[in-house]
Give the backbone structure.
Amino acid sequence: MKKYCYGICLVISITINILLSIYIYAGGEKNQEISHRLSLTWTEKAAAEAEAVAAISCSGHGRAFLEGLIYDGQPVCECYDCYGGADCSELSPDCAADADSGDPIFLEPFWMQTAADSSVLIPGWHRMSYQYNDDYTLMSTELEYYIRKLHSIVGNAITQGRYMVFGVGSSQLLTAALYALSSENSSSPSNVLATIPYYPMYKGQTVLFNSENFEFGGDTNSWQSNNSTSNMDVIEFVTSPNNPDGELKQSVLGGKTIYDHAYFWPHFTPIPGPSDHDLMIFTLSKLTGHAGARFGWAIIKDKDVYDKLLNYITVADLGISKDTQLRVLKLLKVAIEEDGKPLFEYSYNTMRDRWDRLTSIFSKSTRFSIQDRHPLHCNFYNETRLPSPAYAWVKCEREEDQDCSAVLEAGKIKGRGGSVFSADNRFTRLSLIKSQDDFEMLMLRLTELVSLEDRNIETM
């Protein structure tokens, strides 16, 4: 009888195990999916709202946003320049090409293609504290790790053994760096210098803050010819690649220097080697295109300078938004996928194609010229390439064209005049990093303007 009972128990046990195995291996994946779907509670509404807004096409000439304008309870399309109408389908035939701002919208299509990997949903209770609880700092340790990893992959900056500070874009870090490097002797403030043509924010911020510790001294070369650096405290801004002309620059004076590396990425310039300077500043906006995120970082060699710079950020803002840091982390995880190849191939190909088309137009002109570009070996791609700067630095060659910006504006092209960069007004900066619609309009207006040269010759 006992043997009979043992036999029944064995059969039942085997049957249960077989059924359990079938459940796990045949239906487990489906059941896990159902369980996962049922667990999506508070995220469902937020995700549905985001998907609904993203599905509004705006005819491909604009975007709708969750926090944008609402009409009749529905998000409204925000149209790109030259387009209008409820769905941005109406092109204004007389619209001027706006090539003034450095808004890096050219990368928008890449992020739309990687929406599933680059999107982030932020809960209402996310990081409500000023600090991160793991080490009581204002900076995400994980984000810092990914920034360092990105630089290692691209090979554009030495980060090992260096300190890092986050800022509200590179703009805040520029002033923080001045504060950290400036003289503490108010009777002899530090002279802040930059080489013409230079980014106007250097002068603008220095004058605005009106500090007792530093003052703007103008062009580096002019200042050097009239002064001795041996007994004067000087801070030099070096933008490399330069804004507006895209040239790789080095310090003129070789003293205290702030290297602004906003454009030192493979889509704008070949990377000949890692930057290894005492203070280097980078920004997310020209790396991924997310100018609106307002995020930048400084890489610092000296501990005392690091402490001062960090103190400035802490006193000014108590750190950077935790929501911003989460979003940037998500973006950088996508940026380094496959060692950065998808992002940089897309961005470089876009910029290269734009420069090819731009160069073709200017090659037909004797009235206008653009800066020369020289090939360099790029360590990231392991090949020699031409730079593809963010901006065209246009020169009006005719003697009578004293104001190049006005000449272009008469041809329905909005640029940024040379005097903004403390240069001659024979020069004008044209932005090449806006949306594809903006670039196409710029190509149209430039083609029209250059074609007038042939007509003028025929009538002479």
User: Anything to note?
Assistant: The first strand starts at residue 62 and ends at 63. Residues 22-26, 29-37 have pLDDT under 50 and may be disordered. The longest helix spans residues 2-26. The radius of gyration is 28 Å.
